[in-house]
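Re: the request from the purification team.
They wanted to know what the chain is likely to look like in 3D before they choose a buffer screen. I agreed to run a prediction and write the result into the notebook, where they can find it.
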Amino acid sequence: MLGFLTRLFKKRTPEAPHADRALWESEDRFGLLVEQVQDYAIFKLDPEGRVVTWNAGAERIKGYRADEIVGQHFSRFYPQEAMESGWPAHELAVARTEGRFEDEGWRLRKDGSRFWANVVITALRDESGEVRGFLKITRDLTARKQAEENVRLSEERFRLLVEGVKEYAIYLLDPDGRVVTWNSGAERIKGYRADEIIGKHFSRFYPQEAVESGWPAHELEVARTEGRFEDEGWRLRKDGSRFWANVVITALRDGAGDLKGYSKITRDLTERRQAEEKLKSFAAHLQRSNRELEQFASVASHDLQEPLRKIQAFGDRLQTKCGEALGEQGREYLDRVLAAAARMRTLINDLLTFSRVTTKAQPFEPVALSQVAQEVVADLEGRIQQTGGRVEVGELPTVDADPLQMRQLLQNLIGNGLKFHRPEEPPVVKVEGRLLHDPTPPVGGNGQGRPLCQIVVRDNGIGFEEEYRGRIFQLFQRLHGRNEYEGTGIGLAVCQKIVDRHGGTITANSTPGHGATFLVTLPARQLEEGNGHE
């Protein structure tokens, strides 16, 4: 190409031999091709830098028509600061002495707008080596420059963002595990300034036992082979103190897939771990306390049974043999003693029932709740007839549960609906259920969680104020006097404990005078490792 263009500067004569004429014709065709190129500004300059030729690409990129620019000095394509520094003359001087000059920089269009250009200037010499002019090829790389600038700005913003993060230690490692960058969060969490740690191996953040076991190298190996590594464990600060860290290491690869290093993000979870340890300790203490309370309730209940039986036996004997001699007031006192003994017996039995929710628990097995509900209704037939009420049992699913405790649960809820009815209206209790899916995915997995069983027990009874929703499930809580409705206030507490053991929830909604609705939600399928054992 340069040969063609160089010869274009030679003087052409009509007397040229036939071979030269063919060469000139070839050069003419090449010149026409250059003139039509749209993507490159290709033009010639004379030795002083004035424009000699102008192609279509030059017109498109720079905005000048040929008649506007031919004969003008090429420096008009340069910004003022480049003109003042003598840059156009420098370009021609380099091309003259070295044969070629290449550069990228801002250039001007006719309308004064700037574009980013790649410029190649080639000296054109005659056969004697004298510079006859220059060939100048310009490409408009504004789009590429803008993309690069966008990337640079994005990287700069990301760098500033990372450097400003104080809650996370975010830094880069080279392929061998040496620290390359260091943000303010890393300084705050680990205690090192950037100038103290950059270039050092990241294994210094690990306790001695972890280093000796090769754990830092293991982390990098996993990240290298699998792309990512995550772990929690003890790490060291600069002062030697330990902190509990969540660590995520990600392998960084180039377009060819070659490993360039790692990103490492560390969170200080020491406070969370301490809170978890306290919670575990509290849960263990609570569990021990519950066991002790249950044991106490069981032992106390058994120990109270014998003296209570004696009180009731001697009271009955006294009433039978000496009732007339006691007089009216004496008989009233004796009736109160016997009634109190009966209440005490009921209370003891209810306490035993409450303690046996865990102490006498049975393994879980598939339980057909419809059948259990029908059996409960049969057991409550006497109370149903006495009140003139009815119990409607709808569809109920089969669940993994303790069968005896499901019977207790339904008996307490249905029994409450029959007991707390309005005097002027017979009780109606409706029981129904359905299966639904837990929207929370299982830990460590995807998709839906375990299926849930939802049991609804509605009645048309006296109801209760909404402020008592949580209180009614507490032990010994009663909303009505014993003269109005019998009971010890333990039944719903037993329901709560049964539901807790099965990993479910129980709630109640009510409006005074318009009945109550109890909603029980249980896992329909229990996890195998639990299997209902305490």
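For the purification team: Confidence is low (pLDDT under 50) at residues 1-16, 441-447, 528-534.
Please add any questions underneath this entry.
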